[in-house]
Write a structure and sequence with these properties.
alpha/beta, 4-stranded mixed beta sheet, 3-stranded mixed beta sheet, 9 strands, 29% helix, globular
């Protein structure tokens, strides 16, 4: 490896030495925009291989931690979890894209551009248990679905 590349890797490794695989976004709006602007829907169900409809966006909510989150699986080092702290924006499981919750979170331009092709939002209640620090666990639970609707979403 060239000396220049080694020096650059050293800088990157130093900069990210305390990175924990978690990225907290400022608010629900930022989280929604990130989810809507991703190249491929960051649907947990799609990542699990259980399908994933591009007309429906999943916005998983962990009621225990009071966070909306998305997991991106990283091949070499587990999952990257992008989240925002928020009270639940709705108790509904499905909402249509023109629901006031979504319209309130986005400007009219963002709404028109980001929601093309999207018809519904699904709000499954899921607790991500993969980050548990209990060393006595033998079986590790990755996701806990709080109801059947959340699992089949």
């Amino acid at each position: 490896m060239s000396e220049t590349l080694a020096d650059k890797l050293k800088i990157v490794n130093e900069y990210f030495k305390d990175f924990t695989h978690f990225i907290e976004l400022e608010d629900f709006r930022s989280f929604l925009l990130l989810t809507l602007s991703s190249q491929v829907p960051m649907s947990i169900m799609s990542q699990l291989g259980l399908g994933g409809n591009k007309e429906i966006i999943n916005l998983p909510y962990d009621p225990s931690l009071k966070i909306y989150f998305q997991k991106a699986n990283l091949m070499t080092s587990g999952s990257l979890i992008i989240y925002t702290r928020s009270e639940a924006v709705t108790n509904e499981f499905f909402i249509e894209k023109d629901n006031k919750i979504i319209k309130k979170a986005l400007t009219s331009n963002e709404f028109d551009n980001a929601l093309s092709g999207i018809k519904k939002f699904v709000f499954p209640n899921i607790s991500d248990c993969s980050t548990s620090k209990d060393d006595n666990l033998i079986v590790k639970v990755d996701d806990l679905f709080h109801n059947m609707e959340s699992f089949i979403s």
